[in-house]
Amino acid sequence: MNTHDADDILVDDLPAPRHSRRLAVVTETYPPEVNGVAMSMARVVDGLNRRNHDVQLIRPRQPAKLTPPSSGNPMVDEVLTKGLPVPLYPNLRMGVPSKRALVKLWSLKRPDVVHIATEGPLGWSALQAAQHLALPVTSDYRTNFHAYGRHYRLGLLSKPIMGYLRKFHNRCDATMVPTEAIRVQLVERGFERLSVVGRGVDAQRFDPARRNAAMRESWGAEPTDLVMGYVGRLAPEKNLGVVLAAYESVKVVQPRARLVFVGDGPMRAELAARVPDAVFAGQRSGDDLAAHYAGLDMFLFASLTETFGNVTTEAMASGCAVVAFESAAAGELIRSGVNGWLAGPGREADFVAAARTAAADPAARRAVAEGARATARRLDWGDITARFETVLEGAIARAEPAFGLSGLQPVI
């Protein structure tokens, strides 16, 4: 083979180079805040940066007590805006109307696409600014705000909230949703241009190998005792009464069973009064959170307001036997009796019965936990970021003929 032939082969075999894009990502929650939207957005931003994109992250400035106020990635250009506490969620911030500032920012440094992760005042301002500048816009549908109404006596606002969300997302070039079930529900409610982009899980961090005997002992659990747990916000919309019912039912046949709550929220005092023997571990993060998951034998997740529920996949990766309703991530990923246990949506008696079934059979529980771990290991964040990138590229491609954009904007 001569050199010319070798060069031809090498050139032919090389994949087409990926365009480096300038992306503006707007979100009203981000680490060090601890919630599913914040953590998954941080993963996506990091993944986009690793895929050689220039990411401008626009978010509210967080309180000084949350340290450090940084994305943790020096390659990401952060733009901090004014923020206010979120009603009912005082530890979270929402942005304030900022259209004029964003128009100025993006006029000077024009992104190829704007991605909006949250639909609050900052998100709405970003949508208006992007459309003013004829920029393609994508968005996420991440939180069922309208479903929270019945838990906070806001039922009359459910329809107006859904109307706002539909108007918001239908003004975008594409909206990403986490599951096929959510896509179908939103199509029925008049949402358009929906793409399913799931969630990944860090199966190296969330690993059953992090199980810690000393931690379990601090919870009052012997090595063979059953430890049941919940991770997340302690709030009415999480349906925690069903978790308590399952625990109380299991305790009848296994008096040494323990219940651990990881997280904090407005229901903590009420839960402590109702279940004085429960363990309240407070809010945890990072490897410490992973160790708490790994210390559980069963994970009880009764929420019906999730669009996905990252805690489900984190628990599965940690080798927990998950008991959940057939909804969100659990409904998408779990086959009952194979890699978890499911109850029909809202069928509380079935949820309690599933918990008792799981508690009564350690061998089945171990097999299900292994199946859960195997499922979670397939949920790679790299694959999720690639799907996310594909939706962004589609929005850019559709915008280019309309606005005469060919190729990349020069970096300013």
From TrEMBL:
EC numbers for this chain: 2.4.-.-
Molecular-function GO terms, alphabetical: glycosyltransferase activity
Keywords tagged on the record: Glycosyltransferase, Transferase
Family matches, as Pfam families: Glyco_trans_1_4, Glyco_transf_4
Sections of the chain in a coiled coil: none
Enzyme class at the top of the EC tree: transferase
Residue stretches making up the Glycosyltransferase subfamily 4-like N-terminal domain: 34-205
Domain of life according to the entry: Bacteria
PANTHER family: SULFOQUINOVOSYL TRANSFERASE SQD2
Name this polypeptide is given: Glycosyltransferase family 4 protein
